[in-house]
Amino acid sequence: MNIARVDLNLLKYLDVLLREQNVTRAAEQLGITQPAMSNGLRRLRELFNDPLLIRTSDGMTASERALELQPLVRQVLAQTEAMLTPDEVFRPEESRRVFRIMTSDYAEATLVPHIVRRLREEAPSLVLDFLTPSDVSYADMEQGRVDMAINRFNEIPQSFHQVTLWEDSFSCLLNRQNPIAGNFDLPAYLSAQHIWVSKTGFGAGFGMNPEKLGGLGWIDQALMRLGKSRKISIFTRHYQMPALLALNNDLVATLPSRVARMQAENPALVIKDPPFDIPEFELKMAWSPLLHHNVAHRWLRKLIQEESEKIASLASDDA
Questions:
Q1: Which of the listed CATH numbers 3.40.190.10, 3.40.1190.10, 3.30.43.10, 3.90.1010.10 matches domain 170-279?
Q2: What is the DSSP secondary-structure string of 277-316?
């Protein structure tokens, strides 16, 4: 294929078509007519010798070849935009930019206060809009409507950029007067009533089912590998709750160690190592390739990584 004969605007058409999977909506996004968009799809099919979008009972569905092309097209467009965008100077002390950041409750409890403290010093007019996982979809991220996501990810689209901010283990939080506090072994742990706390991933959450513990996360999966299960009495999605709930002398909260250590000065509570192995997890920051080269975005990512390194370093010193 002669690259000189390829209209690079078609890649933009393809990017929007694969994102929307609808010719009319794609045309509206690009500000062109539907016939022009249909003509663009025809040319794309000829270019790649593939239908790309196939009409099914559920609407337009991307072909296997289209799914392979999607991250590559995204990358080419992002690099082209960076190449054609003039060098800018970002002045954080003057910026009034709004950054929209999806954070899990865990990240809000451990990282966000440090980010905000730093930004109040260096960029006091900058605005932060923190969103929950239920507020955001992968499409919002891909299209740059959300600047970044800070969370634990089991999987994420290949086109996204991501970095690991830190790793964390798990600890148990319980009332110092809890009868099992003095002999906190596995039988004692299993005899207790437990607080489940987590909220990760994108999309709306649904009510939990105590009878289906295998899908609840690292802790219950670790117990299942031992042929064991715990008795969960309380389900919560907020990491502020366990410290209050663990004041009951018959409840145990198993939660990330960085969150547990925030209660180290509470005389009513004690922090214990879990009496079984639970794999560590990674807190990651992910963002769209569309924003990868943006100078303001790069500045904020660097700041978040610097604050994360400080927090991780403090945890190592305390260990």
A1: 3.40.190.10
A2: ----EEEEEEE-GGGTT-HHHHHHHHHHHHHHHHHHHHHH
184 backbone dihedrals φ, ψ, rounded to 5°: -90, 75
Q: According to the model, what pLDDT value does residue 86 have?
A: 58
Neighbour count for residue 26 (Cβ, 10 Å): 25
**Residue 76 to residue 12: CA distance in whole angstroms:** 10
Residue 287 phi, psi dihedral angles, 5° rounding: -155, 165
Q: Could you state, in chain order, the average pLDDT of each consecutive group of 10 residues for the chain (319 residues)?
A: 68 86 85 88 90 85 89 79 66 92 91 95 94 85 88 81 94 96 96 82 45 66 93 86 89 93 93 95 91 89 96 71
Locate 122 and state its tokens: 């260096």
Rounded Cα gap, residues 173 and 239, in angstroms: 12
Alpha helix segments (H runs only) across the chain = 9-20, 23-30, 34-48, 64-84, 105-110, 112-122, 138-142, 186-191, 218-225, 241-245, 257-260, 295-318
Coil, helix or strand at residue 84 = helix
